[in-house]
Amino acid sequence: MKKVAVIIGSDSDLPAMKGAFDCLHALEIPFEAHIYSAHRTPDAAAQFAMNARENGFGVLIAAAGKAAHLAGALAARTTLPVIGIPIKSSTLDGLDSLLSTVQMPSGMPVATVAIDGSKNAALLAAQILAVEDAELAEKLNAMRAEQTEAILRKDAALSV
Ligand code: RP5
C-alpha cells in the first residue's frame, strides 16, 4: 500500500492532529509524520514534496495555521493529491488558516477539509488509496457501518 505523509507546520499543531493519527492507526495505513513549514523550512518542505512519489507516498496531508501556505507549497512541488487542514491557531479563529489553505489558484488544487478537520483528512486520504485497494475499501465500509449503528443507537435511546 502507498504511504500517507502527514506534514504539520509546527509541533503546536499536534493536538489538532489526534483525529488523523487515530484514524490512520485504526485503518492500519502506513504513514510518516514530519514537521516542515512553508515559511520556516521552505527547502525541506519542497524537497519532501518533490521526492514523495518516488519515496512511496500516495497522498499528502498538510496541516498549518495562521498564514497557512503549507498545503499549497507542497502541492506546487508534486502531482500527488494534497489534503489541507486549516488549523485554528490564531486570534482569527482559524478563518485566516482556512482562506490561506482553500483559496488556491486554478491549476494547483488542494483538497481542503474543515478547520481542525484532521479526522476527515485521514478518511479522505484513505478513500483515495482505497480506489486501488479493496481491503482498505472494506475497512472503510465497516467504519461507516459502525458510525451508522452508533447514531441509530443514540436515536433509539433519545428521550427529551
Ligand atoms: C504555522 O504557524 C503553524 O502551522 C502553526 O499553526 C502556526 C504557529 O506556529 P508556532 O508559532 O506555534 O510554531 O506555521
Mean of all residue-level pLDDT scores: 98
Secondary structure class reads: alpha/beta
Q: Count of helices? A: 6
- What profile does the largest beta sheet have? 5 strands, parallel
**What shape does the CA trace take?**
globular
Number of β-strand runs: 5
What distance separates the N and C termini? 47 Å
Order of helices and strands: EHEHEHEHEHH
Percentage beta strand: 15-25%
Low-confidence segments, ≥5 residues, pLDDT <50?
none
The radius of gyration is: 16 Å
Relative helix content = 40-55%
- Bound ligand species: 5-O-phosphono-beta-D-ribofuranose
Q: Order of strands in the sheet with the most strands?
A: 2-1-3-4-5
Structure description:
The protein is of the alpha/beta class and about 160 residues long. The protein has helices at about 20-25, 40-50, 70-75, 95-100, 120-130, 135-155; strands at about 5-10, 30-35, 55-65, 80-85, 110. Helix 1 runs parallel beside helix 5 and helix 5 (about 120-130) crosses helix 6 (about 135-155). The chain binds 5-O-phosphono-beta-D-ribofuranose (RP5). The site of 5-O-phosphono-beta-D-ribofuranose has 10 residues, from strand 3. 5-O-phosphono-beta-D-ribofuranose (RP5) binds near residues 9, 37, 66 and 87.
